[in-house]
């Protein structure tokens, strides 16, 4: 069970625990905020808000 704890705590959570801090996000994931160490907060599609925040 120690291995499970280490793997879970290895990835930092962000954006109200819906995102994960990584250097790279997948194509479907969106970046809303940045974590420490210049990592991106990758948010999966099912956790992304429905409304658009920025006029892209």
UniProtKB/TrEMBL annotation:
Q: Check the record and name the Pfam families matching this protein.
A: Defensin_beta_2
Q: Which domain of life is it from?
A: Eukaryota
- Show the GO cellular component annotation of the record: extracellular region
Location within or outside the cell: Secreted
Q: Tell me which Gene Ontology terms the entry assigns under biological process.
A: defense response to Gram-negative bacterium; innate immune response
Specify the Beta-defensin domain's residue ranges.
Answer: 13-42
Q: Which InterPro entries match?
A: Beta-defensin, Beta_defensin_dom
User: What keywords appear on the UniProt entry?
Assistant: Antibiotic, Antimicrobial, Defensin, Disulfide bond, Secreted, Signal
Q: Where are the transmembrane segments?
A: none
Q: Which family does it belong to?
A: Belongs to the beta-defensin family.
Known function: Has antibacterial activity.
Q: What is this protein called?
A: Beta-defensin
